[in-house]
Design a protein that fits this description.
Distance between the termini: 29 Å
Strand content: 35-45%
Order of helices and strands: EHHEEEHEHEE
Number of strands: 7
Structural class: alpha+beta
Strand order of the largest sheet: 1-2-3-4-5-7-6
Largest sheet: 7 strands, mixed
Low-confidence stretches: none
Number of helices: 4
């Protein structure tokens, strides 16, 4: 597996993955991905033999980071791909010395466990955050790593 910057050429595959994983909610569109890339946000892809199997994205300001998405195709879940993507994002916020925040579905136990293992804590609950399913989300945060 290789982690590399996400390319505009990957957007169509990202949309396919979105529909696979988030079909019950509002999967991101091509325009959403293109906007994230065009606005200079930090996005990486996980590739196996040049095939995109996952991606992750982050926005960083001088005050904080915000993880926008981490997604791994079903066939590759549970193999450390998400953890590797998360660690890649965390390296960016650690270099900036800022805290980082995210939202995660309250029923996504594997993701919650991964975030807790990487220093995140639950800060709040957003009722009916994901639409149209109405699923709740935890807001989680991790303090700045100021080593």
């Amino acid at each position: 597996m290789t982690i590399a910057p996400l390319r505009h050429a990957d957007v169509a595959r990202c949309v396919e993955i979105e529909h696979e994983l988030f079909h019950g909610d509002d999967p991101w569109s091509e325009n959403a991905f293109r906007s994230e890339l065009d606005n200079g946000n930090f996005y990486v892809g996980a590739y196996v033999d040049d095939a995109l199997i996952g991606y992750a994205g982050l926005a960083v300001s001088e005050y904080e980071g915000s993880i926008h998405t981490i997604a791994v195709v079903s066939a590759w879940q549970g193999r450390g791909v998400g953890r590797t993507l998360l660690r890649t994002l965390l390296a960016q916020v650690d270099a900036a010395g800022v805290p980082v925040y995210l939202e995660v579905r309250t029923d996504n136990t594997p993701a919650i466990a991964m975030y807790l293992a990487h220093g995140f804590e639950q800060l709040g609950l957003r009722r009916r955050y994901y639409q149209p399913s109405g699923a709740d989300a935890y807001t989680m945060g991790r303090p700045a790593n100021r080593d």
